[in-house]
Amino acid sequence: MRSDGEATRRRILDAARTEFADFGLAGARVDRIAAAASASKERLYAYFGDKVSLFQQVLELNQHDVADAIPIDVDNLPEFVGRVFDHTITHPEHLRMLHWARLEGISALLVDEDRSRLFSEGELLRRAQIDGRIDDEWEPEDLVAMLFGLASTWASAPGIFADSGLVVTPEVVARRRASAVRAAARLVQPATTPRNADRARS
After folding, report:
1. Backbone angles phi and psi of 195, in degrees to 5
2. Which of left, alpha, beta for 167 (phi over 0: left; psi -120 to 50: alpha)?
3. Residue 194: how many CB atoms within 10 A of its CB?
4. What's the chain's average pLDDT?
5. What CATH number is given for 1-49 in this structure?
């Protein structure tokens, strides 16, 4: 059972997630966050220090939730892209937070736990490349970045290109998801002769 302090801290984080996603760091107001969390500003500052620190903790929490909910599936990277695409639809505030962080010049570094997990997944990607299951032209970290880019293409594209006057129906969303998955499949399709295989044997 959560203590009152833990429950209050969680309410502040939840309220901050909404506030920062809507207004960014500069536009967010601590008094609105505190009011939405039914907490005092003094309690907020006691838990998080200042608005910048709170923003960073929300950013880390979002990224941890994504890493925890959607682990990289080395055996089915196209469908991994599909699941990330689904996440951008159901949690658009996470991507908005990343955009705000870049605009504010705030680093979006992963916490140690998620960084270690990503490193482990990078090793699995490298092994899959050596085994000839994934195109070995890409560095694992570059490949991961491109896969996330494919998944978030429509969510990140300027409105004039993203919608072009088109009503975004479930059918349109499904078509966009299928396009991202298909592009990922082409991206990871292994070459006929793996380039890293000979190096792995030497």
Report:
1. -75, -25
2. beta
3. 19
4. 85
5. 1.10.10.60
| Residue 160's pLDDT band (cuts 50, 70, 90) | very low
What is the per-residue pLDDT for 106? 84
3-state secondary structure the chain: CCCHHHHHHHHHHHHHHHHHHHHHHHHCCHHHHHHHCCCCHHHHHHHHCCHHHHHHHHHHHHHHHHHHHCCCCHHHHHHHHHHHHHHHHHCHHHHHHHHHHHHHCCCCCCCHHHHHHHHHHHHHHHHHHHCCCCCCCCCHHHHHHHHHHHHCHHHHCCHHHHCCCCCCCHHHHHHHHHHHHHHHHHHHCCCCCCCCHHHHHC
Q: Which CATH number fits domain 70-201: 2.60.40.10, 3.40.50.880, 3.30.450.20, 1.10.357.10?
A: 1.10.357.10
What are the residue boundaries of the structural domains of the chain, listed by start? 1-49, 70-201
pTM for this entry:
0.80
d(C-alpha 28, C-alpha 67), whole Å = 26
